[in-house]
Amino acid sequence: MNKTNILIDHNFTVGKTDDRIYGSFIEHLGRAVYGGIFEPGHPTADEDGFRTDVLDLIKEAKVPIVRYPGGNFVSGYNWRDGVGPVENRPRRLELAWGSTEPNTFGTNEFMKWCKKADCAPLMAVNLGTGTAEDARALVEYCNHKGGTYYSDLRIAHGYKEPHKIKTWCLGNEMDGPWQMGHKTAAEYGRVACETAKLMKWTDPSIETVLCGSSNWGMRSFGDWEATALDLAYDHVDYISLHTYYGDHHGDLKNFLAKSMDMEAFIESVIAACDFVKGKKHSKKTINLSFDEWNVWYHSNGTPFEKWSVSPHILEDVYDFADVLLVGCMLNVLLRHCDRVKIACLAQLVNVIAPIMTDNGGNAWKQTIFHPYALTSQFGRGEVLQAKVTGSKYDCREYTDVLDVDSVCVYNEEKQELVIFAVNRSEEENLLTVQAGGFEDFVPVDHTVIAGFATDLTNTATAQPVQPAQAALPQKTEKGIETVLRSMSWNMIRLAKK
Ligand code: AHR
Questions:
Q1: Separation of 496 CA from ligand 1 center, angstroms?
Q2: Taking Cα atoms as reference points, which of 15, 47, 61, 114 lies closest to residue 340?
Q3: Whose CA is nearest to atom 7 of ligand 1?
């Protein structure tokens, strides 16, 4: 049988997790907002039109922060269209996704929704067609107490208390030619610097996220990060990363190893941040906001009616293989918790999302909801340094891929040690965990997602892909031992006796 050994010690940690790594994303795109989180008239809609069936699932996943309103959408968005009396709001052609935007949901509705969802906003400003003044005015509208034009406008719109939005994204994927107002790194770096400066002068308590490359494969990758950071360093706190992986059909082993790509991407961006830090002799460290990540391919090419309102687009139906890769990607984020402070599973509802809805009907959990929600619920605390040895494989793009991808998190408050382990091999794997300093901890839970065909999906009518309980691991003289099923996502919890 294949074997894996994890050696950890209570005293050796990577860092403490920032809850915000379990964030997600709602864009004005397809049915993410309209028919997703917001559907006045739906049987579960509350007095604000928010779907409470969807809110319940979001709360179950403990989503701490939600990025909004885009995505590509934000690069053409005038936030003024989405505030004030709904009957006066304009319908607009939305160029990023070829839809019509009714603007019946905007900044204030989103902030109200965030309160009900128990999450913080990660607000993006338009640096495509928008100006530094537009962005700064939005900060004043949202965060200034009152007594000025924009803060009084918010009050006139019925929101007396400032929204106190802490974290702001400076545009979206500005390196991509598909982006409205696409810029070179130097053009973007200057605009981001001046915009962030004015935003912070308006509210010095905010923090800002600079756009990094829209994916690691961009030809400008590296130079983009170094140039944009060099120009905006003093006014930004994070740099963004985005990645999506697609299609396991034909090469499952390679697909499941894609988390290695994500890991190398993170390490390269850290190197770029630290290069600029060194060059500037700065004391400030730029951290990472991995504010779009997921599997995305199932819905590619699905036709929709151009200029319709909230069409069915990007509605990926996830399968069991996606559970395994999403699990590995969560492990990667955790292993880099010392530098990745924010991350957003993209997106949250209907659009490449863990939660799906029918208009007027049910909301349900896609397959990937489970690793996401369980890791969010239990993967908080100190991530432990781990020496992992074990069986490996080679595939088309990667070599020395560990069969078992893992991470260990110690939650001091709950006195709980949690091991997340994905066995991406078709063979069982004997896992041994040698946990120094945890001698008085005993296994209390082994949750597993396994035993499904890789193509199996959850739908509105049937959700077969679910977590189940496995036999508790044994404590032997070698450590904590258990057999991980072939192709399985596992969460093993140990509690103090
Ligand atoms: O999440 C879907 C899209 O993917 C976002 O709008 C964009 O930022 C990315 O390319």
A1: 43
A2: 15
A3: 71
Residue 248: pLDDT over 90: no
Per domain, the residue ranges of the chain are: 2-11+383-496, 18-378
Going by alpha carbons, the residue nearest to atom 2 of ligand 1 is 71
Could you tell me which of 262, 415, 255 has the C-alpha nearest to residue 320?
255
Q: Are 363 and 356 in contact (CB under 8 A)?
A: yes
Separation between Cα atoms, residue 29 and residue 71, nearest integer Å? 9
- Polymer length of the chain: 497
Atom from ligand 1 closest to the CA of residue 292: 1
Q: Is the minimum distance from the CB of 72 to ligand 1 under 6 angstroms?
A: yes
The pair of structure tokens assigned to 29 is: 């795109």
Tokens of 122: 């990660």
284 C-beta neighbours (distance < 10 Å), count: 12
What pLDDT score was predicted for residue 433? 98
For the record, the structure tokens of 177 come out as: 């030619």
Position 209 pLDDT exceeds 90? yes
The CATH architecture annotation of domain 18-378 reads Alpha-Beta Barrel (3.20)
Dihedral sign of CA atoms 345, 349, 352, 353 in order: positive
Give the span between the Cα atoms of 323 and 369, in whole angstroms: 8
Query: Which segments of 61-148 does DSSP mark as H helices, in order?
Result: 107-117, 132-143
In this structure, which residue's CA is closest to atom 4 in ligand 1?
Answer: 71
Q: What is the pLDDT of residues 287-319, one digit of tens each?
A: 999 999 999 999 998 999 999 999 999 999 999
The pTM is what?
0.98
Q: Side-chain half-sphere of 166: how many Cα atoms within 13 Å?
A: 9
Contacts of 24 (CB under 8 A, 6+ apart): 58, 61, 63, 65, 66, 67, 344, 345, 346, 347, 348, 354
Do strands 392-393 and 65-68 pair parallel, antiparallel, or not at all (unpaired)? unpaired
Mean local confidence (pLDDT), 466-486: 97
* DSSP string over 258-316: HHHHHHHHHHHHHHHHHHHHHHHT-S---EEEEEEEEE--TTTT----TT-SS---S--
Average pLDDT, the chain: 97
Architecture of domain 2-11+383-496: Sandwich (2.60)
CA 341: distance to chain centroid?
A: 11
Quick check: 22 pLDDT over 90?
A: yes
Q: What 3-state DSSP class applies to 462?
A: coil
Q: How far apart are CA 237 and CA 210, in angstroms?
A: 8
Q: Is 173 in the pocket of ligand 1 (CB under 6 A)?
A: yes
